[in-house]
Amino acid sequence: MDYFLSEEQLMIKELAAQIAREKVLPVRAELDEKEEFPWEIMRVLGEADMFGLYIPEEYGGLGGGILENCLAIEELSRVCIAVSVSFAASGLGAYPILLYGNAEQKQKYLPPVAGGKSLAAFGLTEPNAGSDAGGIQTTAVKDGDSYILNGTKQWITNGGEAEIYSIIAMTDRSRGARGASAFIVEKGAPGFNFGKKEKKMGIRASATRELIFEDCRIPAANLLAREGMGFIVTMKTLDKSRPGIAAQGVGLSQGAIDEAATYAKSRVQFGKPIAAQQAIQHMLADMTTQTEAARALLYAGCKFLDSNPKSISKEAAMVKLFATDTAMKVTTDAVQIMGGYGYMREYPVEKMMRDAKILQIYEGTNQIQRNVIGLELIKEYTGKKEGVAVG
Length: 391
Prior knowledge:
Layout: H1 7-24, H2 28-34, H3 39-47, H4 66-77, H5 81-100, H6 103-114, E1 120-123, E2 139-143, E3 146-157, E4 164-170, E5 180-186, E6 192-194, E7 208-219, E8 223-224, H7 230-266, E9 268-269, E10 272-273, H8 278-307, H9 313-343, H10 348-359, H11 366-381
Parallel strand pairs: 1-4
Antiparallel strand pairs: 2-3, 3-7, 4-5, 5-8, 6-7, 9-10
């Protein structure tokens, strides 16, 4: 379908697709097998100015928005979401600084990210605090002109590879979620270390590690906004970044359709290609329709999010929920169409199906997305006159 993208947006999409074809496709199986972080591809993306798509020009970016960033993520994801999440997670780590950093913080940290010279990462999840942000145990105690951090963050994408970390820690536990604050922590800070690289079911080339803080001293100037703003920083950041997870879902779904349709045209059974079987045609038709619906919601959602300064949590959650559930179904169906071949690691849909599962989990499980959507709907309809028909 024609989504009436601008000439610049089409150029972004094509450039990302070219990088995916020429740089990612030839090595995706090897990266997955070796669980090797795609540093060479990150450098190529940096040289192509892809890391600065959503960052204002005054900080070395291109001045685009969520849509421009998602167009690049989608095309990379069509080939490999382990690569695309390594790219996209840098945005997740940079958004807190972009949204809540002061002029000095933005000037110091955003240009290296925009130029691809430094990756960023976001530290929220802990061993006992995932969806429950109020359960964070990591603490930050003010000590003169410093803060001292203690605690552990778990399953952090780009952990150990990134140079810049946006960390959520408790400054006043008595206030629950309202006692959380956000900080910038640089790799190499005293007392800041990393756990082992996790071995995962999917997205194996991406780096997932623990962040360990043991009396980690950082300058007080690294506090984002003010104390007690950590929960708001987190929610507003996720509103901006969740469409990127949806873009991964759309791209991954399209990549799985590409593989399944190509295979169905060449695989002969009962004297003709299986693409001639109505059952296969119906599966491909459903996969394509669901993916196009997810793409339409993603692009429309991104345009809305880029133009709407108000609360956008419901829309961001809807985009993430639909596109990632779609990716899980489409990749599963792609494996089914390819049968035994699809189950073999020699063929890419096996990896795609493994990769798809994480999309329903990270940056808020899809059950949490439904909670967000439901709660926002209740807020919208609270106070409406009784007896007025809805829908």
